[in-house]
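About this split. The held-out portion is used to measure sequence recovery: a designer receives only the structure tokens and must propose an amino acid at every position. Recovery is the fraction of positions where the proposal matches the reference. Here is one held-out target exactly as it appears in the evaluation file.
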């Protein structure tokens, strides 16, 4: 039993980190929560009777770990767009706001190979997209848990109620409120609506290739050509964000390719984050020392949002 449990915990580690990331919006916190889950599972191994699968048992423990973290946390993780007004692109970006807990990107290693339950309402890539994760952070913890267990993991109402240690009625009520809130923000309607389906791989690849080529050539017009008219650009931990192609173009010309540009230019490499096209950025003089990872949200055949995580610690993971 001991060896089998150790092997099962190791086998489900990425799965646990993925669930915890959806709860917490931070890869660093998610990995700590997954480690705490493994520790609690090991300590409570005598209580596991095999009524559910090891995976379900571990997910139940991870859910309670994350709820404990959310109860203790002050505030929620946010994208800069949570601020009501976009910035003036003629003014420099604001300095980092370190008192705010920002969303963090998710490395592809935690997405590749993840499988969705047939009963789930969301496929894996939508359920880790930045827009979905940002929308989840707005939900109260138990609503978030009910939605993740029911709609993302495909659990039954009774399984979810058992994990949350509450009645089926209370669980169904929390799920209903969560679905209503999500529809109003992320899912298909409202100001933060996303496309009903992800772009096809060839479309996403062509856009990413054109985007990287434009960066390599310092071609702002080429970058803007890949974007929708209503594109948004955010740069956490700076709270500054820009709305619309004209404002984004001005910010790129004036600041990113102007006053803030490294002397040797940018070294840009294509990658994937949150199941979305992404780029890793470094100073061309020190290409092995990335300082940012940029996640692209694609809608149709254009880029709808650009989120630049200016964090060398995070960028090094990509």
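Reference sequence for scoring:
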């Amino acid at each position: 039993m001991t060896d089998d449990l150790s092997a099962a915990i190791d086998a489900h580690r990425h799965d646990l980190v993925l669930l915890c990331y959806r709860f917490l919006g931070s890869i660093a916190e998610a990995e700590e929560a997954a480690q705490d889950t493994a520790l609690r599972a090991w300590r409570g191994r005598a209580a596991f009777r095999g009524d559910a699968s090891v995976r379900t048992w571990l997910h139940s423990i991870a859910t309670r770990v994350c709820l404990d973290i959310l109860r203790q946390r002050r505030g929620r993780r946010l994208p800069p767009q949570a601020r009501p007004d976009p910035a003036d692109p003629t003014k420099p970006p604001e300095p980092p706001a370190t008192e705010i807990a920002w969303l963090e990107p998710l490395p592809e290693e935690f997405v590749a190979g993840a499988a969705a339950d047939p009963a789930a309402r969301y496929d894996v890539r939508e359920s880790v997209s930045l827009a979905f994760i940002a929308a989840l952070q707005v939900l109260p913890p138990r609503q978030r848990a009910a939605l993740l267990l029911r709609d993302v993991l495909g659990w039954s109402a009774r399984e979810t109620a058992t994990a949350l240690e509450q009645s089926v009625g209370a669980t169904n009520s929390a799920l209903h409120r969560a679905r209503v809130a999500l529809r109003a923000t992320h899912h298909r309607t409202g100001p933060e609506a996303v496309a009903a389906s992800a772009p096809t791989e060839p479309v996403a690849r062509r856009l990413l290739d054109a985007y990287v080529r434009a960066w390599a050539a310092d071609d702002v017009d080429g970058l803007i050509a890949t974007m929708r008219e209503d594109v948004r650009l955010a740069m956490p931990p700076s709270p500054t964000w820009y709305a619309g192609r004209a404002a984004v173009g001005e910010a790129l010309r004036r600041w990113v390719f102007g006053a803030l540009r490294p002397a040797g230019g940018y070294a840009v490499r294509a990658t994937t984050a949150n199941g979305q096209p992404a780029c890793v950025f470094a100073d061309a003089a020190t290409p092995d020392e990335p300082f940012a990872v940029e996640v692209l949200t694609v809608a149709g055949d254009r880029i709808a949002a650009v989120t630049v995580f200016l964090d060398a610690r995070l960028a090094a993971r990509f």
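Annotator remark: The beta strands are 227-234, 241-243, 266-273, 276-283, 292-299, 302-309.
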